[in-house]
Amino acid sequence: MIISISGKPGSGKSSVAEAIAREFGLKRYYIGGLRREMARQRGLTLEDLNRLGEREDFTDREVDEYQKKLGETEDNFVIEGRTSFFLIPRSYKIFLDIEVEEGAKRIWKDLQIHPEKRNEMANPKSLADVIASVKNRMASDERRYQKYYNKSDIFNPKNYDYILDTTKIGKEEEIKIVIEHIRKNVVPREKRSD
Prior knowledge:
Blueprint: E1 2-7, H1 13-24, E2 27-30, H2 31-41, H3 46-53, H4 58-73, E3 77-80, H5 84-87, E4 92-97, H6 100-113, H7 127-149, E5 162-165, H8 171-185
Parallel strand pairs: 1-3, 1-4, 2-3, 4-5
Helix pairs in contact: 1-8, 2-4, 3-7, 6-7
């Protein structure tokens, strides 16, 4: 069983992926974390790395080749990444949707508690800065994936097996809904505990 998680910034992808890995005893791979580390190693923010990626493909190709190989050589994992649905076509594809402003609010709140966890932008001063950054990030993702994969529709629901709008639900409820959906629709019958 391979589950790929994609979604808009602030939709809860990491929390859901961690919970799925724990619940079903799966390995977890976090592509955003690899890209954030790539940015840190170069003294860049994620926003800077994305802009660079619009000109130079290595910023995406390195992590994309990595996840493509995972999909070809491993099983029983959850992977969180914008292009995972496309690069690992045999995965069960989950998309977590959220209104941009609500996603930005969650990111802003998380930045107040854990500023070291994220490096999307240099020193955001307000929620408005985060909203602008989220919009820029999504636009950059679409431009890069169109350029390198002819795939600009990464936020299109038709690409996914299951879509959950997380705008009006909390993290615990979101996790519960997704895990229940996986249990009912993805887990092979012989592995079901109910």
